[in-house]
Every structure is written in C-alpha cells, then in structure tokens.
Amino acid sequence: MRGIGRQRRLRGPAILGLAAMVAIAVGGSLAATQASAATSTPPARAGGGGLSVSKQFFGSTVEPYTGKNTSVFRYTLRNAKGMSVQILTYGGIVQDIWLPGKNGHRADVVLGFKTLADYVKFDSPPVAPTTGVYFGETVGRYANRIANGKFTLNQPGQGAVNYTLPVNNGPNALHGGIVGFGNHIWADQAVTGNGSVGVQLTLKSPNGDEGAKAGSPGCPNGCTGYPAAIKVVLTYTLNNANQLVLHYTTTNESKDLNTVVNLTNHSYFNLAGESSFPGSAYSQLIQINANKYTPTNTTSIPLGFQASVFGTPFDFTHPFQMGARIQDVSAPDNSPGFNQLLEAQGYDHNWVLNKQTSASTGPLGLNLAAIAADPGSGRTLTVWTDQPGVQFYTSNFLTGTLVGISGHAYRQGAAYTFETQHFPDSPNQPQFPSTELLAGQTQHTSTIFAFSS
C-alpha cells in the first residue's frame, strides 16, 4: 500500500505554493416543523456579482434551554466569484457550500440535510447512546472526547473539584455531551463590512450545562455538567477571495469558576460534490501540516504521547490520496495489540500541527493546517487556524442509512473533516495544551476554509 502512495504523491512545494496563492487576496423532546426547506440546487448568485447576505425562515423546533418552540433561520452568504454558503441558526450549522469548478460547473462541497427535521433527528440526536453525525455543526462545549465523561479542575478557593458529563460515545463524552451546542438555536444578526458579508451567532451556556440527575441518559449516577456560565459569539464571514472565516469569541462570565472549552466546526468536505459517486473522496489528495499525531486506545482516547507520522499511513506531510493507505494494517502504528486504522475503521485522529513558520503563515497570521485537492473538478481547500491540532476523520461511520440534501445516500468514504481543535481529552492529560478558560477570561480563536478552483 505504501508503494501506491509513493507513486501518487505530488511534490510538497507545489501544493504549498498553491496554498500561498490562495492566501494572497486576504488581508428535551424535539418536535420539528418545516417551513421553507433547503433545496438541492445552488442559490442564485448575488445581484451584480457582488457580496450579499440574506435571511430566510427555515422552520421551528424546541430550544433545550427554554423548552419553547423557537424559530430557526437560514442565512445565505454570496460573493462575486460564484461561491455561496448557507448557515443555520440551529447548531450554527454550515448546511451547504456551493463552489464553481472546471468549466464553471458548480457543486455543493459539504454533506448536509435538506430539512430541519432531518438535522434534529439525525445530526446529533439528544438520546444516548446514539451520537449522530454532526454534519456542519458548531461543536461544544468540548469538541472531541473526554475519557469516561470525567475531569478535574482547580477552582478558586475550592481546590480540585471533580466534574462529570453524560457518556454518549462508548465510555466517553463526545462533542459536548448529549445536548451539545449543535442542538441549540443561536441568537443571530447579519454582519457586513471590510469586504465581507456574514452572520454573527451567539449562545449562552449556563453553569452546570449538561448536568443531569441520576438515571438520566448517559448519567446513571447523575452528572454535574460543565462549570461556569460562558458566552460564545461565532462570526462566519465570506469574502471575494473565496474564504469562509470562522471567528470564535468565548467569555467565561463566572467570577469564581474556571471551565474547559474546545470549539470546532464539523463540516464534512467532498470537493467533487456531496452528490458525487460513492467513495469519491478516497481519490482526493490530502496534505496535513503535521509531523506527529496522537495515537488512541480502543475507545479513541489518546494514549498520552505524540507519535511520529513518518513510516506510517498517518504521514500526510506530502499529498496522498485519502484512500491510498487507509487499508494498510501491516504495522501496529504505536499501539501494540491493536491497530489504529482497524479500531477507528479508517482515519479518525488528531494531528499535532507543526510549529508555525513564516512559510506556513497565511491569512490573518494563521498557521497552515491542511490542504485538500480534487483533480477532477480542480477544486482545492486550504485550512488555516490558530489551534494546535486538527482532527482528520474520513466518514468511517456513514453506512448508507442517511439521505443527504441532494437525495443521495451517504456512505463510508463520502467525505472528510478537518476539525481544527485542541487535543482530545486534554483536561485529563496535562502534557497536552490546556483548554482551561479561567473565571472572567475571554479567548479568541479563528479558522479559515479557503477555496480555489
């Protein structure tokens, strides 16, 4: 398998040169009711070929914090290059991204659902043990996994305090718990200026969020939930350089409680188009700016060390087809007794991004995380971030049981994610970068999905 990978490898400098070119232009029970659902055809281009933002009623569903039926809206962002993005106030979800390709052909390059009812039912259903697929979601309060749903934090005047979360992914808490940020309806407003259009989404998460009494789903002994009240302001903006910019401002509004925070976007990308033939993502070229990754145990919790990717199927320091080595189980890959790719049924791991250099610095001063390219359509995605890691996941658990926005079933190999993030289980692994947000503290993080064709 490694021989195949070498034959199809492209030269690293060529891809990095392309990335630089992309960067030049920048300075409870839920009941859903349907209104104007998404269509499987591309939104109309902006009038006059310029930037525009519009808002549309998308339906209503019960907001878990209030228990009230609440309206959900869809924002459409368009630019002068034929790119459009649709974002839902439910879950801060990226529903679709339409891009031109060769000969002007446009395609939606992310997986998604057509209706609000489908998002409520399938994306991250709030019933254990099913955890859903998280198409396009804003994931929090803690993206990825926390081992056994437990962690300890030092609190002012209290010392070490133990916290427990609902277990919703085997023995672990995944993507915030049973009712994570993707299950909530965010406050919204359109934003414009500085050569971009966008939408600002706001969510307030209370102290004890995801707490539950004994016997609740995922909480047989009860759960304390996350400490401290926090406010998250997420701004999506689109510019004429085909860059979708995500900026998160998170404030710990508590005066005397620390907490942990790890936010990400969970879009599944397929540059050939979400309705392309089954397994089409396997032939797309992937490069990740990381010499190390964090191997996991059999429940996808990091083993506690950073392992070299070199000499393993995890080496994407040069472009490889996504599927070129995904079946290579010839070596234990830093996990004697089991194999990383067998346990995860493919790639579902955190890559440790290389230290930022002048050569890897891109828009807004962010570090290069990853590049994907589809030779057939000519489309390229470059990911920039200030986060220390990226979770590369190859849609291993899509089984053909879900129907996407264009009416096609999604199967294994249909897409991949680049979840820019802190490392999984960081609250329990002090050798990893800290995810602690102190009382009264505000943090800012940014990620850019930059496209070209």
Secondary structure category: mainly beta
Number of strands: 31
Helix content: under 10%
User: Could you tell me the mean pLDDT?
Assistant: 89
Biggest β-sheet strands, sense, barrel: 9 strands, antiparallel
How far apart are the termini?
A: 30 Å
In angstroms, what is the radius of gyration? 21 Å
Low-confidence stretches: 1-49
Number of helices: 4
Q: What's the multimeric state?
A: single chain
Description:
By secondary structure, this protein is mostly beta strands. About 5% of the residues lie in helices and about 35% in strands. The protein has a nine-stranded antiparallel beta sheet, covered by helices on one side.
Compact description:
Helix content is 7%, strand content 36%.
Give the helix/strand layout:
Blueprint lengths: L1 H6 L4 H12 L9 E2 L17 E12 L4 E11 L5 E5 L5 E7 L5 E3 L7 H8 L14 E2 L5 E2 L3 E6 L3 E6 L8 E2 L12 E7 L2 E10 L24 E10 L3 E10 L6 E2 L3 E2 L2 E2 L15 E4 L3 E3 L12 E2 L11 E2 L18 H5 L3 E5 L14 E8 L4 E7 L3 E5 L5 E5 L5 E3 L4 E6 L14 E2 L4 E11 L1
Antiparallel strand pairs: 1-2, 2-3, 3-4, 4-5, 5-6, 7-17, 8-11, 9-10, 12-13, 13-14, 14-15, 15-31, 16-30, 18-29, 19-22, 19-24, 20-21, 20-23, 23-26, 24-25, 25-31, 26-29, 27-28
